[in-house]
Amino acid sequence: MTSATPSMMRAWQLAGPRRLEPHDVPAPRRTTTDQVLLHTVVGAVCGSDLPWFDGAVSTLFDDRGARAAEVPGYPLHEVVGEVLESDDPDLPVGAHAVGWATGSDALAELTLTHAASLLRVPADLDPHDAVVLQPLACVLDTMARLGDLAGRHVAVVGLGPFGLLFTHAARVLGAGRVTGVDPIDRSDVAARYGMDEAVHAHSGRWAARIADVDRPDVVIEAVGHQTHTVAHAIEAAAPGATIFLFGVPDEPVYPVPLQLAFRKGLTLRTGIVTERRPALEQAVEHLRRHPDLAAGYFTHTFGFAEATEAFERASRSRPGQVKVRLLAEDALHAGGADG
User: Fold this and answer.
1) Pairwise CA distance, residues 316 & 305, whole Å
2) Are 321 and 299 contacting, i.e. CB atoms less than 8 angstroms apart?
3) What is the pLDDT of residues 134-177, one digit of tens each?
4) Overall pTM surpassing 0.85 (yes/no)
5) Domain 8-132+294-333, CATH 2.30.40.10 — does that match?
6) Please, are residues 280 and 98 in contact by the beta-carbon 8 Å criterion?
7) Which one, out of 8, 32, 143, 208, has a CA that is 20 to 30 A from the CA of 295?
8) Residue 311: CB partners within 8 Å, gap ≥ 6?
9) Where are the CATH 3.40.50.720 domain residues in the chain?
10) In degrees rounded to 5, what are phi and psi of residue 74?
């Protein structure tokens, strides 16, 4: 560890379900050359973080906490930070990097992650806004697996932070019709994110009442964390449609109406980003073509000291809310992004 790197750091950790507390803990140390040590600048709450915030037993490590994981910095993986230590020539010391905190432990002054999960933030992007590149990389990587969308009807079930990026990407990629479905009224942002129609309804009601002529050719299930929206996506889809199950599953086995999927000849796809830096590079180019995307994406900004409030806000969506962002205390006090 260099002399400039502190031996201790402030980190927030789960002391129980939905309760994050600050602790002074030893700073992480690099043990391999493919690791990068970041001084955290900004993070953003992902829906996949929320079950762990609720106190669920983590599948990411051997979680033996009595009431919650009790791991410093956990759970937060969408991150932008200043590089403190690195052997990667594309991630020099002093640069800002964006991507994944591979230990989901970025709710701390310092976080250690893999170089391949990071990209240097280009000089023309504000580091506080650049955290949008991580979810955008996930969305664009998914869209690349769906083939040519030109003229096709794309429906997105779940209009949270990822779902809205999906509707935007579908429009940009030439979809002939874009429908979003959510029990929260998203009509206020429908045009901004490229929707022809924002269906304000439970996905089951939408799927049960949809006319054959309105059935989508592609359905992206962007909710996750429960099973019934998968069945609703299958019910709503047109014969021969493709369904992408994007939302992170909480259960190892999901009940699927296989007979219906079989009769319709559906293609069900899923997966995660495996080549992270190329996906982040693709996101940079997309953001440069659509520079206003980040400006309205972060609707709420908190300091790390308000971590519990930030996660509570992220876990209860409402009209007008999109993405929740957290700024490290030094960035916040230096006059970071508004929100």
Assistant:
1) 19
2) yes
3) 999 999 999 999 999 999 999 999 999 999 999 999 999 999 99
4) yes
5) no
6) yes
7) 143
8) 18, 20, 45, 49, 50, 53, 324
9) 136-269
10) -100, 135
